Every structure is written in structure tokens, then in C-alpha cells.
Recover the amino acids of this structure.
């Protein structure tokens, strides 16, 4: 193709990916943007959009039960592993304004539920030094059950049975591979405690003594922090995203948002730019994930696309243009998992066209064999099988007017046969080089009333507008988000020139 010509050499020196992560802040917080040049500016705005702020301290009778105090976490502190099993160290918390989440101070202590019995049941203070407690951070392997884990650490099965009789222990029976169960055991093999993160916001804490158990929860609220990133694409979308400090997952989210308008497999060019305002989710001073994207803009070959996330009164979240048209459309631009291409794909080393079918009337996507091929729109399978030069091919009918064809597949996904209903984005097969083809690629055809059309330039059916009853609320929201995006961009520019 001729793309290189679009970019005179002079531009190459100018097109340097701007990679700035700026934590976006409302204007009255501008003063806080004061970190040193070159380092990310951090201004966190706790938005408290998480779970309705459920009290984080639903348990732990507030009655002063000093008698139990000796058996605190400090018991296990000499073991460095034990310490890391507790709350993450403050150093990981990059911002001081992360609302400290309540950490139960004494996860291992047995606090009598009824304070009146405290004097009787509270163990003598001399209990502490007599036992060395070992903390085992057990990563759940495939095939592990709580039974096998307890067995492995020499805890009697009876203890487990007794424990599981307690209310609130059900989550322990649903542990999954890759999760962590933290066990605390005395040197003589007695089980004294357990911690298990049911999810990032809820940790089950069991304290045990003499086969009596106390079940607690540490509840952490998700904190949402607004972040801003922008970049100019130099060699690839993913590289540009990386330089802007955006995670792979976030770049995929960005590409998916615009996947109805932009062909991310073929249309991305050097000099394309994007900017995005998004949420980071933090729990207990640790980032657990990125997203969702709140508002984003992508400028592709001079065309500007903007999308704003909006949650309607029924609680459904979708992306719309500033004018209130759905980003979702009847057909995807690229009918394959472009992230498999884009992530390895360098714009400066574009593949040659691979088709060999004479009188070529489709679009070719060079992609590794096995790359999932997606139905570009909802429809019904019309044909699935071998067809001469096309090799293995799937044809989908979309209503009366449109049909799409996917050729040279290495494999047709099982269950894809004529008459089968298909959803947009559903995998129907995998890239290959069957039929007359010189290398792995997807040959894609788009037909309107049986006539071949260029899938890349054809005007597709109009997108749905936002529901009437949502229109006013959306317009206000949309304006606000576009303003926020501008403010963040200004702040980012400001921070660059200082
Ligand atoms: Zn072709």
C-alpha cells in the first residue's frame, strides 16, 4: 500500500508519541498539579462512586475488650511473610488521599462476642509467647479443595468440618485456581486463623481457637480515580497506548468503543491521535483494574470520533456520540480480532496484499493463522464449508439486504452451519490460507442486494439515537464529559510546558 507517502520524512521527526499521564482534576484542584517535570502529575479525585458506602466496620463489637489485646497481629509480625499477608504496605499507596480502608486490627484474636463473658473466656496474656505462628500463603492450584489444602498443612479434617458448620463460611467451598488462602498455624499444628479474599472488596477472616471460630469480613470500598491519557500513534496503537501509560486492557476497550467506525486492522495510520479520560479502580491502596472509559476521542486519518459513556435510568451503560447516537452499529468495520494483529503489527512494516483470487472484490486482512474471525453483524449462516478458490468459507445473511463472506479460513468454528443464528462479534472461524491463497489472511466480502461493495467505504445503516426520555440527561452529561476531556487536555499540555 502507499501509506508511507502520506508521511513525509519531516513529519516523522515531529510525530513523536506524546506520552503523558495526567491525573485529571477539577479546575479548583489545579494548584495540586505540582509534581516535578517529567513525572506523572497525580491529582486524585476520590469520586466515591463505588458501592454505596456500606459501613466498613459492620462487625467488631466496639466494646473495649482489652483482655484480648495481647493476641494481636503483632503475634505474627516477626514472620515477614505474615506481615505481607496483612494489609499492603503504605508505600504502595502512591497517593496520600487514598481513603484508608479499615483493616481489622486483630484478625487473630478471639474476641468474645458477649463482652460479659470476656473475663472468663479471655485467655491469659501469657498465651502469646508460647507459640510460634506460621503463616502459609497458599496459591490455589487446579484440583485443590479446602480439604486437600488443610490436609497439606497438617490440620485435622475435623477442624475443617467444624469450621464449615459456621455460618458465612460458604465462600470457602468455592475457592478457585489462582486465588490465595492464607493459613495461620501454630508450630504444633493447630489452626489459628485463615484469610481469603472473596473478591477485591471482601476478605473473609477466620480466627480460631480450640475449634471455636469467629468469622469476620474486611470490607474495602472501591475507589474510583479519574485518569487521563493521550498519545500520537507512531508505530502501533498498542505501543502508543503503552507510552501514554494505558494498560493493554484499556487500549482494547478503546478500540472496541470505536470498532464500528474505525477499522483498527487496516485504517490506523502514523499520526493518528487519541485521548481518553477513564477510571482506575483502587482497593485498599492497590490498583485492581482500569476502566471503564468515561469519554474518549480518536482522530483517524483526519476524521474525529468521540464517544461518551452513559448509564441510562435502567442502569445500562453504553457509548454514544456527543449528539446522542449510539456508537454501536449494525456492522463492525473489521471482522476479526484486530488486537491479534495490532499488537504485533508495525505500521512501518505493513504486509503485502495476499489474495490471489482473480477480480478481487473483497478486503484482505493479513493475520496469523488461528486469529478469531468475527461475524461483522447479526444474521443467519447461509453457507459454511469448502468453496473452490475461497477454501473454507462462511457466508452470513443479514436481513434481506446484506450478506458477508469470510474466506480462506483454517477452520470453521464447530456449530456454525446453515440456518444458525449469529450475533455480531461472535467467532465463526479462524484465519488460515485454504483455497487459492499465498499466506494466512482473511478475505472478507460485503454484499448489498447481492452486489459486491467496498466494506471499507460503504455507508452503513444509521446508528440508533439515545432513547427520548434519556435525551435531556444525556445532553447535560455529554457536555460535562466533553468539557472534562478538554480540561484534562489543557492540564496535560500545561504540565508539559513547565
Ligand atoms: Zn482477498
Amino acid at each position: 500500500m502507499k501509506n508511507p507517502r502520506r508521511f513525509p520524512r519531516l513529519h516523522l521527526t515531529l510525530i513523536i508519541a506524546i506520552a503523558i499521564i495526567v491525573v485529571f482534576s477539577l479546575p479548583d484542584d489545579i494548584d495540586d498539579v505540582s509534581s516535578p517535570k517529567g513525572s506523572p502529575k497525580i491529582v486524585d479525585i476520590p469520586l466515591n462512586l463505588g458501592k454505596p458506602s456500606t459501613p466498613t466496620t459492620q462487625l467488631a463489637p466496639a466494646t473495649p475488650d482489652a483482655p484480648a489485646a495481647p493476641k494481636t497481629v503483632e503475634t505474627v509480625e516477626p514472620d515477614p511473610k505474615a506481615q505481607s499477608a496483612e494489609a499492603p504496605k503504605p508505600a504502595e499507596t502512591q497517593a496520600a488521599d487514598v481513603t484508608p480502608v479499615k483493616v481489622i486490627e486483630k484478625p487473630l484474636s478471639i474476641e468474645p462476642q458477649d463482652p460479659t463473658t470476656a473475663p472468663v473466656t479471655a485467655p491469659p496474656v501469657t498465651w502469646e509467647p508460647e507459640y510460634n505462628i506460621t503463616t502459609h500463603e497458599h496459591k490455589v492450584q487446579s484440583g485443590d479443595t479446602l480439604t486437600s489444602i488443610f490436609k497439606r498443612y497438617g490440620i485435622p479434617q475435623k477442624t475443617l468440618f467444624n469450621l464449615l458448620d459456621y455460618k458465612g463460611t460458604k465462600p470457602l467451598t468455592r475457592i478457585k485456581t489462582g486465588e490465595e488462602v492464607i493459613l495461620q498455624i501454630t508450630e504444633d499444628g493447630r489452626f489459628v486463623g485463615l484469610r481469603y479474599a472473596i473478591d477485591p472488596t471482601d476478605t473473609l477472616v477466620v480466627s480460631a481457637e480450640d475449634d471455636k471460630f469467629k468469622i469476620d469480613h474486611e470490607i474495602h470500598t472501591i475507589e474510583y480515580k479519574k485518569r487521563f491519557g493521550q498519545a500520537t500513534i507512531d508505530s502501533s496503537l498498542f505501543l502508543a497506548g503503552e507510552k501514554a501509560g494505558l494498560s493493554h486492557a484499556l487500549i482494547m476497550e478503546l478500540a472496541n468503543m470505536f470498532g464500528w467506525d474505525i477499522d483498527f486492522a487496516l485504517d490506523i495510520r502514523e499520526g493518528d491521535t487519541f485521548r481518553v479520560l477513564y477510571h482506575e479502580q483502587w482497593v485498599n491502596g492497590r490498583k485492581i483494574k482500569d476502566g471503564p472509559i468515561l469519554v474518549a476521542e480518536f482522530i483517524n486519518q483526519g476524521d474525529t470520533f468521540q464517544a461518551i459513556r452513559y448509564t441510562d435510568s435502567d442502569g445500562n451503560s453504553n457509548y454514544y456520540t456527543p449528539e446522542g447516537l449510539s456508537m454501536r452499529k449494525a456492522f463492525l468495520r473489521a471482522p476479526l480480532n484486530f488486537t491479534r494483529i495490532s499488537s504485533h503489527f508495525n505500521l512501518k512494516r505493513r504486509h503485502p496484499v495476499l489474495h490471489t483470487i482473480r477480480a478481487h472484490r473483497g478486503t484482505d486482512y493479513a493475520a496469523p493463522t488461528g486469529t478469531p474471525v468475527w461475524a461483522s453483524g447479526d444474521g443467519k449462516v447461509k453457507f459454511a464449508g469448502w468453496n473452490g478458490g475461497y477454501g473454507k468459507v462462511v457466508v452470513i445473511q443479514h436481513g434481506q439486504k446484506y450478506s458477508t463472506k469470510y474466506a480462506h479460513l483454517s477452520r470453521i468454528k464447530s456449530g456454525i452451519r446453515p440456518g444458525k443464528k449469529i450475533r455480531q462479534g461472535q467467532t465463526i472461524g479462524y484465519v488460515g490460507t485454504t483455497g487459492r491463497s499465498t499466506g494466512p489472511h482473511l478475505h472478507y466480502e460485503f454484499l448489498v442486494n447481492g452486489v459486491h461493495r467496498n466494506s471499507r467505504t460503504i455507508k452503513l445503516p444509521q446508528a440508533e439515537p439515545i432513547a427520548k426520555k434519556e435525551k435531556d440527561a444525556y445532553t447535560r452529561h455529554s457536555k460535562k464529559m466533553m468539557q472534562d476531556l478538554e480540561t484534562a487536555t489543557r492540564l496535560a499540555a500545561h504540565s508539559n510546558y513547565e
Notes: Residues 1-127, 342-346, 349-357 have pLDDT under 50 and may be disordered. The chain has three domains: 3-46+226-320, 66-219, 338-453. The first helix runs from residue 9 to 14.
